[in-house]
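# step 3/5: fold
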Amino acid sequence: MPLVKRALCLFVALALGALARGAPLPDAYLKPLSARSIGPANMSGRITAVAVVENNPAIQYVGAASGGVWKTEDKGRTWRPIFDDQPTAAIGAVAIAPSDPAVVWVGTGEANARNSVSWGDGVYRSGDGGKTWQHRGLKESHHVAKIVVHPREPDTAYVAALGHLWGKNKERGVFKTTDGGKTWQHSLDLGDETGCIDLVMAPDDPQAVYAAAYRVRRDSFSGGNPAIQFGPKAGLYRTRDGGKNWVKLTRGLPTRHYGRCGLDVWRKDGRTLYAVVQTDRTDISKVAGQPASRPGALLQVERGGIFRSDDGGDSWVKVNDLCPRPFYFGQVRVDPTDDQRVWALGIPLYVSTNGGRSFRADGAKGVHVDHHDLWINPAEPKHLILGTDGGTYHSIDRGGTWTHGKNLPLGQFYSVAVDTRKPYRVYGGLQDNGTWGGPSRTRNPAGIALDDWKRVLAGDGFQCQVDPTDPETVYAEAQYGRPVRINVRTGKRIVIRPPAAKGISAHRFNWSTPMLLSPHDAKTLYLGGNRLFKSRDRGTTWQIISPDLTSGMAVGEPFYAHTLTAIAESPVTAGVLWAGSDDGRLHLSRDGGKRWIDVGAIPDVEAMRHVTRIEPSPFDAGTAYLAFDRHRQDDFAPHLFKTTDYGRTWRRLDKGLPRSGPIHVVRADPRNRDLLYVGTEHALFLSFDGGESWQRFRHGLPTVPIHDLVVHGRDRELVIGTHGRSAYVLDVAPLQELTAKVLAASAHLCDVVPTALPKGAARPALPSAFAAPNPPAGAAIYYVLKEKPARGARLSILDDAGNLVAELPGADAPGLHRAQWDLRRRGGGLVPAGEYVARLAVGGLLLGKKFRVEAE
């Protein structure tokens, strides 16, 4: 048998047997589809690292908390992602070799230990300016805070590794390589609980390196601050022999346990250093939001603050009490040409012009708060680049004015929701950037621009719902259970938080409080605290419909009171309610909340876990999917289950999913009962056999955490809410038809989704720093071929009278194919609205599907 024919037979066998055997489909059934970014980029997202080529500042790199690495070669006017194909999108450090700017080092895993922090898998190196990458080990470091590179040896680098945030591990501290990361020396080893959070190298002596050691542990839940922030081995360390020996610096420094510290060294004299120091006596409330000590104020060393050394760290003098929310910031910078100008990064950007004796809190007027990195141009120190929770900012007048780079789509969505307009709009809540709404497509030939997205609620954005009967009514929620009903046309906002109730303990709400509009009644709203709340009048009044469905107070943990994290109602039967909590408890009511059943133990997973999603089946009231997340217990595997009998029994469905990424969301397709979508910490996965097998969807979608998924029922698109790269849209109409019956047929023509004629002239392209692409104009025609036909495949469009309107090119390889009709007849004119038929002629078969072309 010829080789080509054998390969074709193998392909057919794989496709036919995939669903039956629980095996993934060949990629030919997914390749014609591509996820499409829709933004937004208005608010950008959290930048954790900034690196610039000093002799050519037009070349810059930024690392995002969970959005990968980006590069510009034109001073930030345009950016391109250069890390999308790597296994993680969480970035903690980026460094450029001073002697060879083509050598770029990346440390993965954000090192700011906030409750939503993403982890990485070690260190990467590029020798060609980010075109290609090589993984260079330290996989279990998880959170790399800083990399410094030898000024003359690009293969010699030091790494500050924080280590696991939810458990003990040895791969933490300072590591050194002299061979480009092929091998590593554990230069500063402080045990399995204390890692390192900062590193600086003396500019005049590369053998002198300073490190800030930090013991930090997140709790098992999602509270605001880390449970552990201090330790006996934490503090400031120095080596003068290239990492062979280290000493802890003590003279003039606090004698107490240290928390997070940050370091910088003066460019003109390596003996002058500044440090921001947290101790277990630091009073953050007094310094987090206002200028620090006045000159001459009494300074207590033990309380931490800003310290200065002029003898290479042998001795230190405290100059200020300032220590802004250290676990989230902990960064200090000194002007390369003026040791009296000092910057401290915090909620505002603090600046001192007298060596830190006093600070102003106006270093970044009009800039998004929360500052994580600052680069100061050593050749022109008026030139600054600032990385914040709202993206990048550039200044050329030493911080007097700033320009926001609104061209990085790094939004960290917690949730997404869709309305019923044509075209529909997407809403969602973003970390530290409020709740926004924008269109899934526009009439602007440039695409979806910045001014198409509008913020509808401030604060940290979380859950979001849209009234399916009134697209002007949006429900949005800010942190810790603060829901608001919004009229997006008028801008009117009404706070609808349940009031305190007499006779029971105070309500408790999670950082990300679950909220749900009933699929059976658009006026009925549910909200999950420690109890389940229900409103029949759009949140105006509330009733409590459950007891406390959690375990109450945490046992063996710092002070924490458990809360609900996931709620759901069956779309098949009203009143079938599910509620899951951050301590792993799962409850079910089948009568609208009158009686509740504790579902009890779930097999094969430890009791301590976080319920991330409950997804009732669209086809059967007794069937539901359940996702647990145990990364806060230092378990990074996915946990996914299915019940078909209202929770009496459960079966695992996570076989085949990577063990390195917990599940944030599972969605059941509303048309195909065997099609499931899962969003994990790193990727989107699909199953065409009810969860028996999984395959990653890669086309157009970068490596990124996916926190929410919504299928738009009318338009048959999957809206993907990423936590790091804003929102994407994927056409899933053909995937909804990939059943075993379709795959067994020699050919299949998919249903054609109704499409709209353009109305009037297209909106003119407006200047914009960012524009996301619109989909191709017209109707998408999909078809499936089991094998290559003898005479090829021919596609045509007929009108309702059977007249030929257009002919489309067809492909004839096995798999799924797409053809695009631009709604024009032969000769070029647009067709009128009405009924049309897509016809596929293949192998003696003639298949047709009616569809509508509608007026917009």
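# step 4/5: annotate
The helical segments are 3-21, 740-744.
# step 5/5: archive (pending)
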